[in-house]
Amino acid sequence: MENHALHAPVPIGEVASIARLRHWRTGKIIGNLQKHKLLSYERGTRPEGLSLNVSGYDYLALISLRKRDSVGAFGSEISVVKEKNIYIVSAGEQERCLKLHRRGLLYFKRGVNKPNHHKRRSATKEFACMKVLLDRQCLVPQPYGLSRHWVVMELIKGTLLHRVQELNNVKALYDKLMNNIMRFALYGVVHADFNEFNIFITHDERPVIIDFSHMLFTHHANAKMHFERDVNGVINFFKKRQVGKGGSWQFTK
């Protein structure tokens, strides 16, 4: 039913056939799913019928990741922005990061409650990109699982670059960041949002680049423009800071 519901409501008469269930059992299951707001009945459409809503699509992703042991338990929500929700989750004893790709809160404010407004393609692209780059020793999180618009990855314990106040070796960090921009391009990828808000610095001053939802392949028509913007963004960030005693940073006027 998922593939049908992503495009058009499914008449109730077809649901039993798709799910391969007896009609009486189908009605009971539908009632239970509607009670928990996982399905909605679309009226005034052609055809009228059932469709997955946001919660239903989220639930399918969760079940899939749970079966593959990518997620075992949910923790707290650590970030909410217009295109993603980020949670701490766990698998066994290991804490992980769960990222839900969404098209934008404006769609939900307008009353749209459809799973096709999730960025499934964006999630798939980000997962594949991290996997390829990690295999080539780039400084990115380890991806653990993908289902629909959900990506499970390594939970990076560190500080975002724009909040870092002290470093032992500023030049080494600059070199690592520039090296990774070049390595990304060498392997056919442009990050396209490479900035101090998407770079974690760990306790041992290792940078980890996150958020590949905007990445482009190097053959894209706008790849060169975004590559240059990524490079210039790093240069300008370091230009705005001056190194003081003990490696402390301060913004220059």
From TrEMBL:
InterPro entries: Kinase-like_dom_sf, RIO2_wHTH_N, RIO_dom, RIO_kinase, WH-like_DNA-bd_sf, WH_DNA-bd_sf. It holds the Pfam family RIO1. Residues 43-253 form the RIO kinase domain. Its cofactor is Mg(2+). Keywords: ATP-binding, Kinase, Magnesium, Metal-binding, Nucleotide-binding, Serine/threonine-protein kinase, Transferase. SUPFAM superfamilies: Protein kinase-like (PK-like) (SSF56112), Winged helix' DNA-binding domain (SSF46785). SMART domains: RIO. GO terms for molecular function: ATP binding; metal ion binding; protein serine/threonine kinase activity. Its EC number is 2.7.11.1. Transmembrane segments: none annotated. GO terms for biological process: maturation of SSU-rRNA. It catalyses: L-threonyl-[protein] + ATP = O-phospho-L-threonyl-[protein] + ADP + H(+); L-seryl-[protein] + ATP = O-phospho-L-seryl-[protein] + ADP + H(+). It is an enzyme of class 2 (transferase). The keyword DNA damage does not apply. GO terms for cellular component: cytosol; nucleus; preribosome, small subunit precursor. Belongs to the protein kinase superfamily. RIO-type Ser/Thr kinase family. PANTHER family: SER/THR-PROTEIN KINASE RIO2, SERINE_THREONINE-PROTEIN KINASE RIO2. This is non-specific serine/threonine protein kinase. It comes from Dendroctonus ponderosae.
